[in-house]
């Protein structure tokens, strides 16, 4: 475990990943990017029903650690290596098999916003500020990250964010669809835990299957297929459906495993 990535389990059914480099506003260094897929795989093996991703302290993440750029991007080979590590980290989070929630405070910029966009849902407090700034550095944002941004806010807003590299405050981010909900600073932790508890109380089998469908849609699928039909019909044979139906008939809350 890299010391800048912490994991814990705040409540039953929940896992939490914390980006922890608070002295640098949780800037994500090369070791953190490289370790993220492994740590996410370890969290997946604990079979959580929901994953919360947050920063340590007052910020989510100020982006990639610019203090390392002189070394990481010194040669074409080193540039390709760190770019592949960042892409693998983003993809691993996006592919996490259960719902993921980004809990956002303060700075959520560049690669930090890329990680937040790799989550299914984003809750922000009213101190949150968002930006994607490669245009300020003469760089280009990776295509997969551009695609996730477009999926979240639409092409016109994505162009605004990328072309201007401007800082966007929480309420504007909410109007854009960049975040799902803005909560008061002293309420954000409780709001996310309460929402995560709501997800954890539902069928994990349903959530995992629907995440698979969302991923297929994001990859360009627009028509029903035999595989997707099988996923839908398979739900009726599942233990979760038996429990959900029985609980409905008995007028009680279902108790999914």
Automatic annotation (TrEMBL):
SUPFAM superfamilies given in the database record: ClpP/crotonase
Keyword Signal tagged: no
Keywords, sorted A to Z: Lyase
TM annotation in the entry: none
Listed Pfam families: ECH_1
InterPro entries: ClpP/crotonase-like_dom_sf, Enoyl-CoA_hyd/isom_CS, Enoyl-CoA_hydra/iso, Enoyl-CoA_hydra_C
Family: Belongs to the enoyl-CoA hydratase/isomerase family.
The protein's name: Enoyl-CoA hydratase
Lineage: Bacteria, Pseudomonadati, Pseudomonadota, Alphaproteobacteria, Maricaulales
